[in-house]
Write a structure and sequence with these properties.
15 helices; alpha/beta; ten-stranded mixed β-sheet; about 25% strand
Length: about 525
Amino acid sequence: MSPPKKRILIGSPIHQKPAILLEFLSSLLHLKQHQVELYYYFIDDNIDQKSSDILQQFSQQSELVLLQSSGYSDEYVRDNTTHLWNSSLIWKVANFKNMMIQHAAQLQYDYLFLIDSDLILHPDTIEHLVAADKDIISEIFWTQWQPNKMFQPQVWMRDEYDQWEQQLGEQLSAQEIAIRFEQFITKLKNPGIYEVGGLGACTLISQHAIQSGVNFNPIRNISFWGEDRHFCIRAAALDIPLYVDTHYPALHLYRDSELDKVASFKKESGILPIDEILSPAEIQDTPHVEVIHENHKLTLTMVVKNESSRFLRQVLEEHRKYIDEAVIIDDGSSDTTIDLCREVLEGIPVRIIHNIVSKFSNEIDLRKQQWEEVLKSNPDWILNLNADEMFEPRFAQDIRPMLRNTEVDLICFRLYDFWNKDHYREDLYWQAHFHYRPFLIRYKPDFVFQWKETAQHCGRFPENIFALPYFLSGLRLKHLGWSRPEYRLEKYLRYNALDPNAEFGWKEQYASILDEHPNLVPWVE
């Protein structure tokens, strides 16, 4: 009996030009999988819609692709000379890579393979790296960082980019440095596996290394430029050696002009032409909102009460872009809330349960009722939102690939408390967006769900759901319920009436609701 295949998560933050992205994805599709199973986690950070469409098309080919929007629209300047990075871009990418590390840890992949989207891989790359049995190992590639300069590898021996060997305390002349530099470069041009001091951009990381604590967080007492250097220093401090393999060098498309090298690289590596993988016609016709697929039904559930004059119409108009059905608990409305739900969701299956007497004073009863009513619809995925919550616009485009991910049963998001129409609050008492909370769950009939039995703040879902494999999404959720002064006053009075001793909440936060000069941050789509 053959041993089980190693599960590899390929992770890539992608901000790329369409032509280069196509070649990158093509090479991934041709990676050999005799001894491994490949899964994909892409963060779409593109500002070119064609590149986003290409990723959508790629994600629709397999349930093993998790595609997530970054939520950013930053410019990244590059030309046929060089690439221009700034600190905010670097640490944004570092955060994306940390999300991928966390995802690989939660789902217990054997390895995470982090790769830049301007690299073209040889089909043997990943299986060969896995066979090397190293905790951290990169495949080499060579780059001409400036025109008319020599090609250099993306690995180094010490400090920021010293490409020669030097012992601690050893003093070297300029001539000796030049000799050792040439020795280092010559060595890496010969097939082998070599220990190095720094690496990046094409790196296989074992689950053992992940559990040991490697990550891309900045090390505060080091000023080195680039997230990879902080990753490598942390790995060294954890006593995890770094290696580079030089058997199957990747092709680095650092400039558009280097696309001319792709054909010969493919021929030597056995990669088929790109139009056999993704045709331009398929990419152009890719819809932004995916057609509903079997076994991925998305059920929206909400608890509403007297919401017709607030945000209900606005949020339902967004939700109808991606949901398949809705189950709504009307908790004693005396206005036209029910009629509004039916009007805005016309054409979508909607079931509304009306409570003559509100159950909100004992929230656990209300949430259990909501859960039981949703289960009657035989849901696949359950999205539980309040009547004043709505996702940023990218959610409608990105949700379907997330639902197709068979490795995840729970998805968490950050909730931003809006204090007016375009600012959210951020201070000591208002930090909801610093944390990820569960809003979307796959129903598992064989899982025993258990509730937190408290009258208030019992949670929208059963409390043991984090026993399920979960994912932290970069998509953001807007909470509009605090965005007008009259609503804040109403909530302040309600919490003081229902929870006067702050038994279920935070007394100081209750008091801060009426602060006259809170710290507000502009919202950027």
